[in-house]
């Protein structure tokens, strides 16, 4: 609803990282660049061939 959208205040990156200032469930900010690096590392470790590694990386990035 428009009322809900007008009440929404965007968070700064450092506010999202702080459990105390979030005041909710403790979600943290995880930059996309680090997500991709982590997915790449896991896929390279677990994948047996290039096709399997690409599939694993794609699945990890869509979670």
Summed up, what is this model?
With about 60 residues, this protein is mostly helical.
Topology overview:
Blueprint: H1 2-7, H2 13-17, H3 19-22, H4 32-46, H5 50-61
Helix pairs in contact: 4-5
Task: Give me some keywords for this one.
63 residues, mainly alpha, 5 helices, 67% helix
Describe this structure in words.
Residues 40-63 are annotated as: Disordered. The structure is a single chain. By secondary structure, the protein is an all-alpha fold. It has a domain at 31-63. Helix content is 67%, strand content 0%. It is built from five helices and no strands. It has helices at 2-7, 13-17, 19-22, 32-46, 50-61. α4 (32-46) packs antiparallel against α5 (50-61). The radius of gyration is 17 Å and the shape is elongated. The two termini are 27 Å apart. 2% of the residues are buried. The model has no long low-confidence stretch (mean pLDDT 79).
Helix content: 55-70%
Strand content: under 5%
H/E element sequence: HHHHH
Helical stretch count? Answer: 5
Given helix and strand content, the structural type is mainly alpha
Task: Give the beta-strand count.
Answer: 0
- What oligomeric state is this? single chain
Region (Disordered): 40-63
């Amino acid at each position: 609803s428009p009322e809900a959208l007008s009440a929404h205040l965007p968070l700064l990156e450092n506010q999202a990282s702080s459990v105390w200032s979030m005041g909710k469930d403790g979600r943290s900010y995880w930059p996309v660049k680090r997500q991709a690096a982590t997915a790449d590392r896991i896929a390279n470790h677990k994948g047996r061939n290039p096709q399997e590694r690409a599939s694993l990386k794609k699945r990890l990035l869509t979670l």
